[in-house]
Amino acid sequence: MASSLPAFVARRRPDWESLEALLTRQRAGTLRLEELRTLDVLYRRAAADLAHAQTFHPGTDVHRFLNQLCARAYAAIYQPPRERWAALLAFFRQDFPRTLRAHGAFVAASAGLFLLGILLGAVVVLLEPRGAELLVPENMRDYISRKQLWTDGLLSVTPPGAVASGIATNNLTVTIVTFASGLLLGLGTVFVLLNNGVHLGSVAALCVHEGLGSKLFDFIAAHGPVELSIIVIAGGAGLRVGQTLIDPGELPRGQALMLRGRESVKLVLGCAPFLALIAVVEGFISPGDFFPWWVKTALGLALGALFWGYLLRAGSAGPRAGAEVG
Amino acid sequence: MSPPTSPSLDVATPERVSLSLPVAGIGYRCLAYLVDLALLFFFWVLAYFVFTLLVSDVVGFFTGLSGLVRTLMVLGVFATQWVYWTLCEVLMGGQTPGKRLVGIRVVRVDGSPVGVLESAVRNLVRVVDSFPLIYAVGCLSVLLTRQHRRLGDLLAGTLLVREERIDLDKYTATAAPSVALPSADVTARLGSGDVELILSFLARAPWLEPAARTRLGTRLVERYGGLDAQQHATLLAAPGGVESFLRARVQAER
């Protein structure tokens, strides 16, 4: 028998209020075991009340109040497992490299696009040096025409710590943009990859044309391999998202996107600490003449080999994993 | 009462009850974003003044900074741009300070709280949603999707639900002792929709224009009172009589 609305509220309200109080304390984390049991019981009663309200008093404030109360309790009771340090460690030992290998084709496609951009930029500038006026930013052209690299002034003006953190955040931003623009049907990622490639290729070609090739190589050698790899990986993640949007397969587009989105963002998050490390190299070691060119080259090759060795080997045979990381 | 067209998130719990939560639309989202933006802005204004006071020259601010402070600044800019949102959402149960003020919350599409990964996804995609200006892509996406989700929400599998502050006192408030009023003739029972209508009128009456208050109260009495013309006239003549009568009518439903 349906009781009237005021009677229902008057009878059940004390329970709801104690459930609310318990939920507030649950969020603060000061709950004892027996209180936890009470919370469980009260939640079940509130759920029954919600069912009652749905049937006899739909659309009233009580109905909405109970919806909200049950949702709070539901969220508190059915919480997702907390990510802890162990999970973080497992992520870098297995999850990240495995995800990368699973998306190898996309990373390869991304690398192809990036290389295509570099080739385009380089060929245009080498065949027709005036093309640099179109492709290379003006302040860089000024530096190059004075037979200087824009990185020469880097350390004399700002302390290397600030340079490194600035580079790290800038590279992270580029990485995130490369990935996220994959949501524009993948076209965004394609554009960013080609654009960055053309930029890099044209600058390099201009430097070679002006006789600064060895200086540029000297600057890029130490950090280039890893940094460019990371951009390519982020591009692969972006292409993956774009591909899901165009061809979601058996699932509805929304669900496919959700599923693949979680996978691809792992690639971006996994790259973050390596970007920070490589920024330290780029800020402290790459500029200036303190280290001879062969040291930088050897360091760059070693870091690149370590990075890709880790990506291709780690986590492939269960818990045994190479933890050594560039 | 919310109009039936307003979108909601429906969750089937293991207790075999379906929850339905109201989804936050574009207005709530913009408001929360503006509050967060203002917070970050004031943080940077404050940081600027603290730094300038420490270095004690206003114009030569940037040249006077040490390497450490400059590093901190670069990291700070990065943190306010990228890390702030995810950190807040994970630590504050799906809310940033702006969202908490406005009363909205990020949840997964199944109603459970967001984890680190989902929050990271939806906030990394913020950069595409804000493309090209003033969140044009995000706003379009919010307006066009059924549950008002931006691209970041679509990719992460999250959405924003609204938290309403609902006062249950109006159901239990007792009628003030009134002078001899005609008592209601309780032949017809009130449905819960009718009770809700009368109670929401009573809850809002103190803030209504006097003319509108009298007009609405009279119409409710005509509809639910079941009084004859004589009783009706005495009721209208008594000050506050209409509302005491309506409250007594609802109380009689117990």
From TrEMBL, chain A:
> Which Pfam families is this protein grouped with?
SpoIIM
Mark the transmembrane ranges. 105-127, 172-194, 267-285, 291-311
Organism domain of life: Bacteria
Swiss-Prot/TrEMBL keywords: Membrane, Transmembrane, Transmembrane helix
Stored InterPro entries? SpoIIM-like
Answer yes or no on keyword tRNA-binding: no
The protein, known as: Stage II sporulation protein M
What organism is the protein native to?
Answer: Cystobacter ferrugineus
**High-level lineage:** Bacteria, Pseudomonadati, Myxococcota, Myxococcia, Myxococcales
From TrEMBL, chain B:
Is the Transmembrane helix keyword given for this protein?
Answer: yes
Localization terms from the record: Membrane
- This protein's UniProt keywords: Membrane, Transmembrane, Transmembrane helix
What is this entry's stated membrane topology? Multi-pass membrane protein
Carries keyword Transmembrane? yes
- What name goes with this protein? RDD family protein
One matching Pfam family is RDD
According to its UniProt entry, this protein's organism is: Cystobacter ferrugineus
Q: What taxonomic ancestry is recorded?
A: Bacteria, Pseudomonadati, Myxococcota, Myxococcia, Myxococcales
Chief location of this protein?
membrane
* TM ranges: 31-55, 67-85
